[in-house]
Specification:
Elements (H helix, E strand, L loop, with lengths): L1 H6 L13 H14 L2 E5 L3 E3 L2 E3 L8 E5 L4 H13 L21 H15 L22 H16 L10 H14 L18 H11 L1
Antiparallel strand pairs: 1-4, 2-3
Helix pairs in contact: 3-4, 3-5, 4-5, 5-7
Length: about 210
Amino acid sequence: NVNAFEVNGHLENDPSAANNPYADDVARGLRWMLSLLSSQSVFAQTNPLGTFNPDSSGSGIGLYYNSSWAHYETGMIMDALVATGHPAGVALVTGVVNVSGRTYKAIVQDMLDWHSFCQTDNPPYGGSFYYTCNSGSVSDNSAAQWSAIGLIAAERAGGGWGLSIPQIVKDWNRSWLTYTQQPTTGIFGYQSSSTAWGPYATTPSGMVQM
């Protein structure tokens, strides 16, 4: 909802925001979302393509939405933060460690770093994401699509965002796409090339990851 308001021009830092009830909704929504973030340490990861440092910001932490399905919501929140168009915006929440008082740019970069850290390492599920960080032996395209949506928004953001994700994370994602795509039909499956609910639920996930 916040994202929808933002892309239609209702921004918290708009000069006319004081007279715009939708901009007020956006400001309140952003504060609420940011209040639900948590942090964890991130450190070197190794997958079959090599060892890399997911901590692009150098902060030593990754940020994520604190829930049992973190990869679903974290990608959506990244998208909404980038849609503010205001990388210098400051998180106006209190008492949230590693969030309060930091810029949107720094927060989104740490969310990117969390995704890099949490990517599944082990084949054949390697290269994707699951409901939990570093799931080890399982992934699925239901969760991975939301991670991809947030990562795409962050990486393509211009206007002073300057965000980055390690190339090895994107390269490793290709292994997962190969594993879950049926080579003859082109459709993508759920946790393998099997479609579980038919091709229409999971093929868009593969497409957005591509």
